[in-house]
Amino acid sequence: MGTTRVHMSVRTFTRRFRSEVGSSPLKWLAQRRLAHARLLLESTDLTVARIATASGLGDPVALRKHFYTYLGLSPLAYRRAHHAPEPMTAR
């Protein structure tokens, strides 16, 4: 299906992608999804389940696995360390 549109085998595409980007397409995609999840953890109060879905990782288990693999900590530990506090408002 995809090979008829780009006239390239999966192997060739993967090799060319790796030479241009520096990683496999799957690893690149996982890193982009993780970056989006990190942004959401830093800037929102969404639940881990909602963030997992919004970032394309599917579920909290997959999100935790990616966080441990790439960052060595849980999503909640990351949020505690990087979440911006609510700005104080004048009354």
Give the arrangement of secondary structure elements.
Elements: H1 2-6, H2 10-21, H3 25-43, H4 48-54, H5 60-71, H6 75-82
Structure, explained:
This protein has a domain at 25-82: Homeodomain-like (Arc Repressor Mutant, subunit A), CATH 1.10.10.60. It is built from six helices and no strands. It has helices spanning 2-6, 10-21, 25-43, 48-54, 60-71, 75-82. α3 (25-43) packs across α4 and α3 crosses α5. The radius of gyration is 17 Å and the shape is elongated.
Outline type = elongated
Strand content: under 5%
Strand count, sense and barrel status of the largest sheet are: none
What is the CA-CA span between the terminal residues? 61 Å
Number of helices: 6
Provide keyphrases for this structure.
single chain; about 90 residues; mainly alpha; Arc Repressor Mutant, subunit A; 6 helices; about 70% helix
